[in-house]
Amino acid sequence: MSAVPPDRLAALVAAARDARLCAIAPYSHFLVGAALETTDGLVVTGCNVENASYGLTMCAERVALLKALSEGHRSFSVCVVVADTGKPTPPCGPCRQLLWEYCGDIPIVMANLKEITAELRMKELLPLPFDGRLL
Ligand code: THU
């Protein structure tokens, strides 16, 4: 059972699948889409953008998050990540750090082109986070 209402979940998964089609992934050929929902119901999407230096690659989740933050959004309710894999594609370490800082303990829904593969909260993905409370 998802923490996200079924109609919202379907819309977010569809948005993340669409965003995935914009991925620029000539090196890994691993296309990822993300859809981040603000608490006022807006959906901001992202895709991974790779670079010949490899290390400058931006993940779909970070693209969505930085787009949203740069447009003034500060409060988020859920993030959906889509890749074409049977196993869930969870956010990488740097994405977890940023999602925790700016989104808090939201559900992260992982899906592929057919179905939902997993849903975990940020606290499960990053159980002992480093954040501003420790500074
Ligand atoms: N990638 C994402 O965009 N999000 C994830 O959650 C996992 C990995 C991208 C980065 C890179 O372009 C490709 O997938 C392979 O690592």
Describe this entry's structure for a reader.
The protein is α+β, with helices and mostly antiparallel strands and 135 residues long. It has a single domain (6-128), classed as Cytidine Deaminase, domain 2. The protein has four helices and five strands. The protein has a five-stranded mixed β-sheet with strand order 2-1-3-4-5. A hairpin with a 4-residue loop joins strand 1 and strand 2. It is globular, with a radius of gyration of 14 Å. The mean pLDDT is 98. Bound molecules: tetrahydrodeoxyuridine (THU).
Compose a concise summary of this entry.
30% of the residues lie in helices and 23% in strands. It is an alpha+beta fold and 135 residues long. The site of tetrahydrodeoxyuridine has 14 residues, from helix 2.
Supply database-style keywords.
135 residues, binds tetrahydrodeoxyuridine, 5 strands, 23% strand, Cytidine Deaminase, domain 2, alpha+beta
Oligomer: single chain
Number of domains: 1
H and E string: HEEHEHEEH
Could you tell me the strand content as a percent range?
Answer: 15-25%
Strand order of the largest sheet: 2-1-3-4-5
Q: Give the name of the CATH architecture.
A: 3-Layer(aba) Sandwich
